[in-house]
Amino acid sequence: MSLSFEGRVVLVTGAGGGLGREYALAFAERGASVIVNDLGADTKGGGKSSAAADKVVEEIRAKGGKAVANYDSVEDGEKLIQTALDAFGRIDVVVNNAGILRDRSFARTSDLDWDLIQRVHLRGSFLVTRAAWNHMKNQKFGRIIMTASAAGIYGNFGQANYSAAKLGLLGLANTLAIEGRKYNIHCNTIAPVAGSRLTETVMPPDLVASLKPEYVAPLVLWLGHEQCQENGGLFEVGAGWIGKLRWERTQGYIVRQKNQSMKPESIRDHWEKICDFTDATKPANIQESLQSMVSVLSQVESQGDVGVNPAAAAASAGLGSGIDPTKAVGQKLPPTTFSFNHTQCILYALGVGMSTKDPDHLRFLYEGHPDFSCLPTFGVIPSQAAMMDGGLSSVPGLNIDFTQVLHGEQYLELYKPLPTSGKLTSEATIADVLDKGSGAVILLDVNTYSGNELVCYNQFSVFVVGAGGFGGKRSSEKAKPPVPPPKRSPDAVVIDSTTRDQAALYRLSGDWNPLHIDPSFAAMGGFKAPILHGLCSFGFAARHVLKQFADNDPSRFKAIKVRFVKPVMPGQSLQTEMWKEGNRVHIQCKVKETDAVVLAGAYVDLHRASGASPENLSQGGGLQSELVFAEIGRRIKDVGSELVKKVNAVFGWEITKDGKKAAQWTIDLKSGSGSLHKGPYSGKVDVTMTVSDEDFMEVVQGKLNPQKAFFSGKLKVRGNIMLSQKLEVILKDYAKL
Questions:
Q1: 27 with 116, same domain?
Q2: From residue 426, how far is each of 333, 379, 409, 448 by CA, in Å?
Q3: Could you give the residue numbers annotated as active site?
Q4: Do residues 404 and 440 both lie within one domain?
Q5: Full-model pTM
Q6: 434 conformational bin, left if phi > 0, alpha if psi -120 to 50, beta if neither
Q7: Whole domain around residue 702: which residue ranges?
Q8: Over the chain (737 residues), what is each successive 10-residue block's mean pLDDT?
Q9: Which of 264, 380, 411, 527 has a CB 3.0–4.6 Å from the CB of 522, allowing a cystine?
Q10: d(C-alpha 477, C-alpha 635), whole Å
């Protein structure tokens, strides 16, 4: 499929002849609207004429293309961009090509020779690009091509001024690539070799004639296209050949020892090793560049051997990954506010598939309904600003490539039903950073408040591809783990179709990622078409549970956890399989058409229906002990710090029913302000008690003495048995039903 630039607006500087003219003609031929800029000066920067730009514009228009001329100097960058905005309403691609020569041997280079070259090449490219930058940021798209030279990369006699400016452009491009990445602005640099007014002064005539500009233009078009994801690259190009350049560095050698001065003689004696490119490293960013220095400081201070390879040592320590958990964990992101009314609640409900075709849905779609409510999973919307607004980019110790960030898991817990209007404030904290080898996992905890009242808590688990290997831990007690479903047939299955416009509708709730709406952007991500938001599937599955097991009563909803596995295409059908065990409903979501699992390890926790008693809960197949642990959890939130001081221990509970383990709980009253965990626990437990659901309730209600239960075999204890004496503090004082 050919590359098209229909709808794109391209500015080419110095487009009156040579390479610039070829670029302008090529972009226009493929549908771009082109601004042909040329001051009309001679090769040394003297004179001015509109003839060159006008001629190229005429060529483009004669072929049916769209183009306008601009005759300003690149030092008037704002004027060039304004021409694009006035003529075509936007700017998408900037090709900084304009240049002049004032070749002199270094000793004969005047101030004017130096200054003119810097002003046109380096300062001109800076001014034009700066003028376009905010327009590209706002539209979340931009492609910038800088023009360097072999003279800048390697040096060339008589071109000290030109070489300095051209290598300066590479430094500028590298930084723009970093700053523009999160806005989908990519910046690359080319070092072209082609026949032009500038190269005819340093090349033989027959070589100038053979190195045609048309052999360079295709690379510029590719780097300017939306499908191209290259960013921060440097390319030599000419004669139909293209090569990418990167830095290479020797392994190096440490030439100092602790408490000893560093001497030039030591450098002389180890010069061959310092300059030995055997097993050279290839640093790709400033973090990797600095890793050797950090490693050297560590080795010298610990009196490591002189001559140890610092690059290898740093790599093994993960110092080049750009992630430092010691700096990142505990960092708070700037608070975000979210103001909303019934409109946003209804829009979200429509976005996750609710419809007036189902009468039960009306309470979520009509603000005049007597029971008008907000869907519980709307709780992710106020908190997602912490992820969407680039807050992670400001966190020390998290120098990551945001194009490699994937949403891995999500946990949401509500402390009260969500209001249908108001102003909510979310406070986000980096809870932990994990090293998974192939990538890093960042756990982001977000608490959302209405005034001073905590409304809901979210934990975003994001995976950063390629950011692992920094030597961090692989798991965390702070993570809300996914839980596999029971190994039996599901208790209920709901199949629900998404619409072709499901992603287009859901994005109106605040996730504006073009991956879900723009086919060309989706193609850059490797998808055939825009994909559905993971949190949209999350909303579908949650409302399936709410209807099937909670009579669409949002006050019954407590929490949801999911792991995102595969994408869903708008128009596909979601099949939610559900297993009810007590107050927890395990869920697994598939695409019906392909049988591919899209949500795994998922569950929804429900509050028991008002008026339900332990007896009828038990008759329904649940565990009476669920109520006690739920109350313990609520008490820990209120007075956890006090309990930690009194108890200082971690208790494990294994609850059995009909002789089989039915539930596992861990009460951590040893760290922080205390916590309650259901399911497998990765930390150390001081004492574990196994008891049946019925006997547990007898103990809690004072009908069965714990010591008698122990000696009769009804209560089994593993670990520090003496800690069981502290159970009274937990059960009697804080678990009143």
A1: yes
A2: 10, 11, 19, 4
A3: 162
A4: yes
A5: 0.46
A6: beta
A7: 624-732
A8: 94 94 96 95 71 96 97 96 97 96 92 95 97 96 96 91 96 95 95 65 55 90 96 92 90 80 89 88 70 56 46 41 84 92 96 91 92 95 78 80 80 94 94 89 94 93 86 89 91 93 95 87 79 95 94 94 94 95 94 94 88 39 74 77 82 86 86 80 84 86 78 83 69 47
A9: 527
A10: 20
